[in-house]
DNA sequence: CAACTGACTGCCG
DNA sequence: CCGGCAGCCAGTT
């Protein structure tokens, strides 16, 4: 079995967690939005790294489900349905297509 | 030090 | 609407 290749460690992730943690319930933020808030515009991929690491190894209490892509769609590759359920539980309308009105829930 | 990978994004066909 | 390609940065191999 191919052990996960390239697995960044928790260094720059700290900044990501801090920003994501500040997203109020019922709101969402795009990966690029988080990157920008943490003073690192263009590091959307790093945000994705950090969130993936949460599943790999338990990190701080981070509402990762409030992070969606720039189109307001869930690009979660591990449990899109779980994320959708979490958002709906907070009052965010997510369609069966895993899409939501980013402009309406944008926390930026 | 070079190559590879990835919960992204924007542009093209 | 969907798939492919390039640009992007940090961390692992």
The helix-strand sequence is: HEHHEHH
Main beta-sheet annotation: 2 strands, parallel
Query: How many DSSP-defined strands?
Result: 2
State the end-to-end CA separation.
Answer: 41 Å
Shape: globular
Helix content: 25-40%
Q: Low-confidence runs (pLDDT<50, min 5 residues)?
A: 1-10
Specify the number of helices. Answer: 5
Average pLDDT, to the nearest integer?
86
The share of residues in extended strands comes to under 5%
Structural classification: mainly alpha
Read across the widest sheet, the strand sequence of neighbours is 1-2
Report the C-alpha radius of gyration, rounded: 13 Å
What would the keywords be for this entry?
single chain; 108 residues; mainly alpha; DNA-binding
Q: Can you offer a commentary on this structure?
A:
With about 110 residues, this protein is mainly α. About 40% of the residues lie in helices and about 5% in strands. Helix 1 crosses helix 3 and helix 2 crosses helix 3. The longest helix has 13 residues. It is globular and about 35 Å long. The chain starts with 12 loop residues before the first helix and ends with a helix. The N terminus is likely disordered.
Write the layout of secondary structure elements.
Elements: H1 13-21, E1 29-30, H2 31-37, H3 44-56, E2 67-68, H4 80-89, H5 102-105
Parallel strand pairs: 1-2
Helix pairs in contact: 1-3, 2-3
This protein binds a DNA duplex (13 and 13 nucleotides) through α2, α3 and β2.
């Amino acid at each position: 079995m191919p052990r996960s290749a390239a697995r960044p460690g928790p260094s720059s992730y700290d900044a990501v967690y801090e920003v994501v943690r500040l997203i109020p319930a019922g709101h969402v933020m795009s990966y690029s939005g988080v990157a920008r808030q943490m003073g690192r515009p263009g590091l959307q991929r790093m945000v994705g790294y950090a969130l993936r690491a949460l599943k790999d190894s338990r990190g701080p209490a981070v509402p990762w489900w409030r992070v969606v892509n720039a189109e307001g769609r869930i690009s979660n590759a591990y449990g899109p349905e779980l994320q959708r359920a979490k958002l709906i539980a907070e009052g965010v309308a997510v369609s069966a297509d895993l899409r939501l009105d980013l402009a309406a829930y944008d926390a930026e």
